[in-house]
Amino acid sequence: MSRFATIDVGSNSVLLLVAERTPEGRFEAVRERAEITRLGRGVDATRKLSAEGMEATLQVLESFAREARELGAEGIAVSATSAARDAENGAEFLAAAKARANVTVEIISGAMEAELSFAAVHSDFASDAAGPLLVLDIGGGSTEFIYGNRGGHVDFRHSFDVGAVRMTERFVGADPMTSEDRARVEAHLRDTFRALPAPPPGAALVGVAGTVTTLYAVQHAIHPYVAEQVHGGTLSVGQLSALADRLCAMPLEARRALPGMQPKRADVIPAGALILLESVKALGLDACRVSDRGLRWGLLAHRFGAGATSS
């Protein structure tokens, strides 16, 4: 069976997927890895990728590309999202990635990011859904909402410039978060999400990416992280509200020690929890399903699936 790889370079983390394409055209994971490198550190204020964020990300990108090749990947597709889109020096990062990791990084649009995330969710959740699917992708720099039907057609998509890193850097000035800081985050999110159209009747919400999976892992004290115990789970509004209260009131060192917490994500997880909570509320829903498979899986099908080229 042929093997292919995708690397998702986000504002907060870098994710690797190496998978085999079966004769039937399905993909089966051979290896999945994730590292938090904070490429989007400071981009909201400076509009530039920091030297520290770029170096940390390039080191992981080199390592992941080497690992994919050692595992026999015939092709590697690499995407970058919010931080690289927003940064004035994004071209510098792309050139360095080519020189050091011998990969071509494609900066994808918010619309393409939404399409790929929806495709990944649709393949896993459409058969269980009684109605339309809504996908929520919370990143470090942006949050995408995608409305689609069970047939895979996307009816609405929008990328908002609210992410866990961006909200933390913009509004949070103390540890633990003060009530005033929390109120500012919540007010900004509510104002931003007013632009969302009402979801179609009977829609089910699925959240993807590290904020959502981490919140589920913390809620259920899943340590070490096991994807199969997270994928397909559900977080209710009541659970999210209590979890947000707990995380916002807890100092950083205590958050880092929580079972299920990625220590490098602990500083931005309170803002991430508020984004998820306010998103569910804005949609008028009472729960969110959890997907461990996000953009990297959609990119895999887009680049290397049936009918796609592997160049």
UniProtKB/TrEMBL annotation:
The source's domain of life comes to Bacteria
Q: What GO molecular functions are on record for this protein?
A: pyrophosphatase activity
**Which named protein is this?**
Phosphatase, Ppx/GppA family
The residue ranges of the Ppx/GppA phosphatase N-terminal domain are 23-301
